[in-house]
Specification:
- The chain contains 29 helices and 19 strands.
- It is α/β, with parallel strands linked by helices.
- The strands form 4 sheets. The chain has an 8-stranded mixed sheet, with helices on both faces. Strands 1-2-3-4-6-9 form a 6-stranded mixed sheet, with helices on both faces. It has a 3-stranded mixed sheet with strand order 5-7-8.
- A hairpin with a 4-residue loop joins strand 1 (about 5-10) and strand 2 (about 15-20).
- The radius of gyration is 28 Å and the shape is globular.
- The structure holds 3-hydroxybutanoyl-coenzyme A.
- It is found in: Peroxisome.
- GO terms for molecular function: (3S)-3-hydroxyacyl-CoA dehydrogenase (NAD+) activity; 3-hydroxybutyryl-CoA epimerase activity; delta(3)-delta(2)-enoyl-CoA isomerase activity; enoyl-CoA hydratase activity; NAD+ binding.
- It catalyses: a (3S)-3-hydroxyacyl-CoA = a (2E)-enoyl-CoA + H2O; a 4-saturated-(3S)-3-hydroxyacyl-CoA = a (3E)-enoyl-CoA + H2O; a (3E)-enoyl-CoA = a 4-saturated (2E)-enoyl-CoA; (3S)-3-hydroxybutanoyl-CoA = (3R)-3-hydroxybutanoyl-CoA.
- Pathway: Lipid metabolism; fatty acid beta-oxidation.
Amino acid sequence: MPEATTQYRVESDGVAVITLAYPPLNALHPQLLKSLFENLDRAHRDPSVKAVVVVGSNNNFSPGFDIQQFRNQAGGGGIDNQINAAICSVLEGGPKPTVAAINGVALGGGLEVAMGCNARVCTPGTRLGLPELSLGIIPGFGGTQRLPRLIGLKKSIEMMLTSQPIKHEAALQLGLVDALAPSLDQLLPVARKYALDMAEGRKPRVLSLNRTDRLEPLSEALGIFEFARMEATKKAPGLKHPQLCLDAIQYGVEHGGAAGLVKEGESFSQAASLDTHKALVHIFFAQRSTKKIAGITDTDLKPRQLKTVAVIGGGLMGSGIATALILSRFNVILKEVNQQFLDGGMSRIKSNLNSRVKKGAMSQAQADVALSKVKGALDYADFKKVDMVIEAVIEDIPLKQRIFADLEKETRPDCILSTNTSTIDINLVGQKTKASDRIVGAHFFSPAHVMPLLEIVKTEHTSKQVILDTLDLSSRIKKTPVLVGNCTGFAVNRVFFPYTMAACMLVDMGLNPYNIDKVIAGKFGMPMGPFRLNDLVGSDIGLHVGKNFLDSFPERVYVTNLIPLMNQHKRLGEKSGKGFYKFDDKRKASPDAEIMPIITESRTSAGLLKDPTKPPRLTDQEVIEFIFFPVVNEGCRVLSEGIVDKAADLDVATVMSMGFPATKGGLIFWADLVGAAYIVKKLEAFASMVGPKAADFFTPCDYLLSAARSGRKLEEGASKSTSSKL
Ligand SMILES: C[C@H](O)CC(=O)SCCNC(=O)CCNC(=O)[C@H](O)C(C)(C)COP(=O)(O)OP(=O)(O)OC[C@H]1O[C@@H](n2cnc3c(N)ncnc32)[C@H](O)[C@@H]1OP(=O)(O)O
């Protein structure tokens, strides 16, 4: 383990430079903070020192408090609010003026240390922010007090509630940063001069905690707090830590910065004791660990620099994938079967880029450069130049097999051949080739240029080099990869199918689909309920994908007539103007009484209830459990079959694909908080509620049962891992 410390030197101009040093980014480990405190004291006591500059090593200031400590020590990672308050107070009000010299990022505690200094200097490209809420805590080194005093309440509350950093230009404009150094080699000279200017009275020495000039008048401030609280509740109903953050800010505005610091400490401790904090810290590390695959990323293998990728099929998926690739500067060949389809694909790519320009995510000039990276093709003439192919045609096995047989002939022997299938066995796709070592699944989620997850599906034949290259491609196109084994539905769609089936079962039992959606979205925190999602995806797609599960897992599926009937009535969802909901021309969804006869027909054919006039009365909590406990059960099968490398991968996959709330830590983390024994008991109760026709849907798998019996956590016991099979 590298040492967490600070280095101290006094320059010839009398400026003491204290360097934060803890690779890779200078996270604020308690040892580093202790050393910072000691060196500040040393500088203040040394009569030859006129001023102090704090800087980071490795060309970075600091990403904040060491998040590892939150993992090691529950309830706030052993943060000592007193020593932190002492550091900031010595920085701010000690005998010598202080300047933070910032490069890279100053986030969380990193920015708070910088705000404790009397001034801040940064380089172009620096990012500054307080993202603590994204970890379920609140700023705890004075950030709730100093940021509003430096830049005003409105912007500071926005920065804290969204956890979004700002760039150097905005920081300068807002007054968070006092001066810009034109380049990294000028950072220390500019910061030292600024510090001496303060020491020698040429510039005022500012104590941000005492400032009030940037705070809005109290009556206006109260309005800002009211609005922010409403917005926070609307965005994340039931979450406590955003309100705790606002409590601390408001208290400081009403009672002064010093009292606000005390309140901040209390609110921080409260937030740090909540499950939300544990869940979000888990997701932070889980997301980074999906890229680390034992036997691949820890070997001497190096990823090859893929430059040109061909995408076969310019439909919704293919054009989205091509967009993601050109946005990250890959050369792309988009292949279609005829000019009309090719034109359609190209115009979808253009429209994806245009919508980014409209949203301000890129300039028109950048969009033009991106578009110039894609070239259309109707044949394989240029495929010898291609480093990787991503096939994204319809889910038709013979068609995919034909394409792969062609690709084997038309590409170089080192070209990676991948398929974007969402459910089909990868071995089946490559069955007509001898290229199995270079075949891999690259399962994108729609819209592919937006959704952050990439499921990389390996078979027993896929080479390690191909897996490593695909992991690398994933990072380059800014997707989080999850490496999964080959089975129907892989990891994500495997755990997704009981979600829809359980929701349909509830409707067949007499519950109202709109109420179910309200509970699952509003109460549980999914981005939308299962029926609204069905309308987004399309009932036809749902039926098609669902068939794979009916065929592959007949012993544990629930066969409903609801989705087939929606298809029969051409209620395909948003694209046909009506599904479970009806849609206006702005695609706004509203309930539609016309679906009642369809629901009645489905209920009658399901025959789940002895007395259909008496549907069960389920609480909201029971609706949540009825839908999510079968999902957990399937997740346990995915773990025990080694489809994912570790439970945390499934957590990341569920958060980044189905929108499982990150604040609950992903599927298995949440299930462990609930407890396997309780889940088994409820699954058994649901089985007896629905009777023999659907009871098998709830049968707990061995993995879940054994965890329930032994008290073992679900995350602990994957019996075999994909990496061990490599
Ligand atoms: C009291 C205080 O108010 C409380 C706090 O300060 S809580 C901390 C608040 N800060 C944050 O939330 C920032 C967290 N970090 C980040 O957002 C991103 O890491 C970043 C923008 C700084 C860099 O992103 P990126 O370049 O993609 O690199 P990334 O892979 O994330 O990080 C590099 C390594 O640094 C580690 N790291 C980053 N920030 C860290 C932190 N604050 N503590 C510990 N480790 C950290 C990562 O885990 C990763 O380690 P690994 O290589 O072993 O996986």
